[in-house]
């Protein structure tokens, strides 16, 4: 694939991710869903064009989202975890035995969650969040459970893409 085509695909994926994050930040209940959907753009580029391009999609989309998205928490979720996780996941899945791979993925998520909660408390603390910080252990348990579900769905979507759609997409990318 030519370099100009790769750059065009990356630009389209950056725009897609940024628009999804913007829409998700405007509709409060969709913020986490928007981060998940925007991370699929990084995953697609990582599958088809590989590392330097997927990293650039993550970085550019993160910068755009931090600059233009009114709800900075959505941008932070993408910046600290959602955007980079599809890239990191590829490396963490190589760890054997498989239980260590899962433990490493959960550890990466827990670190990102801790940083996100610290930044939120330090810079965006509003009275509504106080209850969440009073029961922080519940937040961690529920977040890890949701992450495990997210990780599983990401694997299933990747398998579905490779089995059903990749051969069609490859024809369009050439």
Explain this structure to me?
This protein is mostly helical. Helix content is 85%, strand content 0%. It has eight helices and no strands. It has helices spanning 3-26, 31-48, 51-68, 72-82, 85-92, 98-123, 130-134, 136-173. The longest helix has 38 residues, at 136-173. The protein starts with a helix and ends with a helix.
Compact overview of the structure:
This protein is mainly α. The chain has eight helices and no strands.
User: What is the helix tally?
Assistant: 8
Low-confidence stretches: none
Radius of gyration: 17 Å
How would you sum up the global shape?
globular
The amount of helix comes to over 70%
Distance between the termini: 6 Å
Could you tell me the number of beta strands?
0
Our estimate of the beta-strand percent is under 5%
Multimer state = single chain
The main pleated sheet reads as: none
Structural class computed from helices and strand pairing: mainly alpha
